[in-house]
Design a protein that fits this description.
The chain contains eight helices and twelve strands. It is of the alpha+beta class.
Amino acid sequence: MKDQSLWFLENIDVTGIFCPKKLGTLHSAQNDKSFKKGEYIYMPDQSSDKVFFLNEGRVKIGTYGENGKEITKAILNKGEVFGELSMIGEDKRRDFAYAMEDSKACVLTTDEMKTMMKDHSGLSLFFMKIMGSRVLEMEQRLESLVFKDSRSRIIEYLVELVRKSGQRVGYEWVVRKFITHQEIANLTATSRQTVTTVLNELRSNNLLTFDRKRLLVRDLENLQAEIV
């Protein structure tokens, strides 16, 4: 199954697009940065002048509400891009980027990125897709918040997670590196207790099973039918 939204760009791996052999001497070892698990890559109000291409690991993008509550906007995996708003005039970061595990990224300044876009026309389309897809994702999440109850939002997220990261194994789908119940709650504007209750119910109905390392969806079609 292919993801039906533009948000994940059909899992385009930008490590190939930004291969030093293709792009010449502009890319160098100094562009490659490592981040330890638990390290903030950037924080709100920091200068926004770099674009990041995730080569290894997982990164959480989020912000903080007025009461200090964390709001998770996205969890990104290898081959995805973040910090791209610096390309369209963002001066200060509005979000934070946090390494959920040891991660590596290719980091380019906006000036370097603009130079590359002049030399490689395909990159302009690539960034247009990223920005457009993320607007679409935010609209879909807003609609979900307005029109769907907590249970449906959680199930909808699980279905989209399979579309993005799932691997088919026979009639089942497996997602490795399954995130915590709290992270799902942050992404779906629910509570950890609600996420746990819904997951346990779905497991009892033999639609899926899970542990800390993976999610196994036994019947994706019937799981999707649970969304109301």
